[in-house]
Amino acid sequence: MLTYVLAVLAACANAAASVLQRWASIGLPAQDSLSLRLIKGLLRRPVWFAGVLGVTAGFVLQAAALSVGELSVVEPILVFELPLTLILAARVFHAPLHRREWLSVGGMTLGLAVMLFSLAPSGGDPRAADWIVWSTGIGVNLAVVVAAVLWGRTGKVAPRAELGGRRAACLGAAAGCQFGLTAALMKGAVSESPHGIAAVCTSWQLYAMIAAGITAMFLLQSAMHAGRLLAAQPGLTLSDPLISVLWGVLAFHEQVRDGLWLLPALAGAAAVTVCVALLARSPLPGTEDRSAAPSRPGESASRGC
């Protein structure tokens, strides 16, 4: 039960962080996407630091959940980040939720519950993965991230008249894949905790996790800047648990139920995917361009994106 509670709290922290970071990016020049100039601009906005605190809290809660539970249990629960983000964004950007959105949230919740109950992940040990498994997995994971970034670079930053944009969607998916890798490395690091804090601090996974996390944060900022919140959020929300589950099952040998149990599991996964697609097409982010951007000295607080 503690694993589920910690994972849900991590999803809440991540949802708050997504809304705060999108709010902070409103009004920054479009050409700053995938540039360090974007970070320079965000550093001038206090609300961005609140978003970073949210990401940090989510990171700590996720690590705590992974220390007591399996990767393929914790990460799918983080899918709750999407409906939580929508609910919070509706409040921040003054867009009330309608029946379509509430039904999608309910469908995601039910689908995820069915999927986790059907698969019942258990066991697994990251310490069983050798260097070949780690290097192959990291190489494939990074290749997927690079491919998503390159595809996203060919898309334009979404103008205010559009709901989304390929760049935001691709960068969101790239960030999610990178966060999935970060979670796998985090699980590898915390798996050394039975041997003491010194074993964790001297594990190579800890420092690889830090590097992967910094890269994921940079991609996340670019995704939030490239388009409206729910253009980037679906790819971010789905790719993270997908990559993490693949790491858990293929690399760490976590066990899941097979046979007829796969039918309700697939049905639950399909329900989650459909509901995510419905939320991604929600018209609610349409008020986002009219929200106030965080003000700087000499800058109007009513400036839009």
TrEMBL record:
Protein name according to UniProt: DMT family transporter
Lineage per the UniProt record: Bacteria, Bacillati, Actinomycetota, Actinomycetes, Kitasatosporales
Keyword tRNA-binding in annotation: no
Cross-referenced InterPro entries: EmrE-like
Residue segments, region Disordered: 286-305
PANTHER family assigned to the protein according to its UniProt record, in alphabetical order: CONSERVED INTEGRAL MEMBRANE ALANINE VALINE AND LEUCINE RICH PROTEIN-RELATED
Transmembrane segments: 6-25, 46-65, 71-90, 102-120, 132-152, 164-185, 197-220, 232-253, 259-280
Keywords for the protein's UniProt record, in alphabetical order: Membrane, Transmembrane, Transmembrane helix
